[in-house]
Design brief:
Helices cover 49% and strands 18% of the residues. It is built from 14 helices and eleven strands. Helix 1 packs across helix 2.
Length: 441
């Protein structure tokens, strides 16, 4: 067997695999001999069927199968030995007049090669890393929500200012149907808020969505409208009242503090604010990190220039999936996936050049932290190491979970690397301002 490669250009090559009779004859003969031993053909004893009959009936199929196995093995070994970094899979070149009756065969495969490029993490860019702070207004609002949450709920017949009004926003044309609890002070103007006062269960209040809130993004929460639809949305929605309740706020005392954070952890309103601020900013940090990671990713894709074997990849996409694609469909699919492929190549180079590897200890430690956080949400603040280790073992016995958690660990390693090596500006913002920055407004 002989394998040669023709370099078409930097991104494309053709590999030719020459298979001779000596390469496959022994394998084919062995398979046919096994067929003969087990063949049951009328008129012949088992094992006594003439080889000529076996050859006539099974020879061509066995030949094709054995040659294909040789091709797959030899081509894969060649790619490994030559250390060729290919994209997609080798594509066999179709030969219309291929002669399977010959003794020797020649097969050609097209290769799409990964490009050579460099990734400059320290290059100039426009990436901003946000530091989200919990301001006094947010802290006061959170404390009030806590007092209401742990307060005593009292049902009412008529609504007054400050009451919780549960009901459903609807608009058939826009497909709006969302059950939510509101109060009269959530709206941008007092005029709208007054429409909800003095109402009873079963009453319907009709309002316009235009300028309903001080921030149109709130329509996403209260009406479950998509982000692309919220700006300038100008329709009427009905709010059908289901319940009217008022809350006698819980007192800010030691009993409430212990209920929230455990006995003696918080002993004053000042400490309560500090704890809320700390917890909130930890959550905000995760959101800010995710945006930073996304923004660095986009910057790297934009600023790391290299060509791809686009023509080859479009051709490969036509047969890569379960359902064959037309050339037009494959072209469209390539356009959709091009940036993802570019980042996969960039990410792979960053990982290799910076030695980012995931060890089993990394995976266990990360999984344990995830589990502890989940347990804390359900009030289990101090689980034993034995309990956590048992859950970790069960989680990591699931291959899908291992894959998902491994991706998260690598994402965290990439994030830490970017924080260390990428040049960025830091900007302090409130959470409300961060949301506006998130959506580019």
């Amino acid at each position: 067997m002989n394998i040669t490669r023709e370099q078409v250009d930097a991104l494309n090559a053709v590999v030719t695999v020459a298979v001779t009779k000596e390469d496959y004859k022994q394998k084919v003969d062995k398979v046919l001999q096994d067929y003969r031993k087990n063949a049951s053909i009328p008129g012949f004893r088992k094992g006594a069927v003439p080889m000529s009959l076996i050859q006539k009936q099974y020879g061509k199929a066995v030949l094709l199968d054995e040659v294909n196995k040789i091709l797959q093995t030899s081509l894969n070994d060649y790619l490994v030995e030559e250390k060729l970094d290919i994209l997609g899979n080798p594509l066999p070149k179709v030969t219309e007049d291929f002669n399977w009756d010959a003794d020797d065969y020649s097969f050609e495969f097209e290769l799409g090669l990964a490009p050579e490029f460099t990734v400059d993490l320290g290059a100039k860019n426009k990436v901003v890393k946000y530091n989200i702070t919990a301001d006094d207004k947010m802290l006061d609002e959170q404390i009030e929500r806590i007092q209401k949450q742990y307060g005593k709920l009292v049902s009412k017949e008529k609504s007054e200012e400050g009451d919780d009004i549960r009901g459903t926003f609807t608009n058939e044309e826009k497909g709006i149907n969302n059950n939510v609890t509101i109060s009269s002070d959530i709206f941008k103007t007092k005029t709208v808020g007054k429409k909800f006062l003095g109402k009873k269960v079963g009453d319907v209040v009709t309002i316009s969505t235009k300028g309903l809130f001080d921030d149109d993004h709130k329509l996403m929460d209260y009406l479950k409208v998509g982000h692309d639809d919220v700006h300038g949305l100008d329709v009427e929605v009905n709010f059908t009242i289901d319940e009217i309740n008022t809350t006698e706020k819980a007192e800010l005392n030691q009993e409430l503090f212990d209920k929230l954070f455990g006995e003696g952890v918080v002993t004053s309103v000042e400490q309560l604010k500090e704890k809320i601020k700390e917890d909130a900013e930890q959550q905000f940090a995760s959101q800010a990190d995710q945006k930073f990671l996304n923004d660095v990713t986009e910057s790297l894709i934009e600023n790391t220039k290299f060509d791809l074997p686009a023509e080859f990849l479009v051709k490969w996409l036509q047969t890569a999936g379960e359902t064959p694609l037309t050339p037009e469909q494959a072209e469209e699919e390539y356009k959709k996936s091009e940036n993802g492929l570019r980042y996969q190549l960039i990410e792979g180079k960053v990982i290799n050049e910076n030695g980012l590897q995931i060890t089993f200890d990394d995976l266990k430690a990360y999984t344990a932290e995830v589990i502890k956080k989940q347990m804390a949400q359900f009030g289990q603040l101090n689980p034993t190491d034995e309990d956590v280790d048992g859950i970790v073992a069960r989680v990591l016995s699931n291959k899908d979970e291992v894959k998902r958690l491994s991706e998260q660990v690598m994402s965290e390693k990439m994030l830490n690397l970017f924080k260390e090596k990428v040049k960025f500006k830091t900007k302090d913002v409130t959470y409300q301002d961060f949301i506006k920055e998130m959506y580019g407004e």
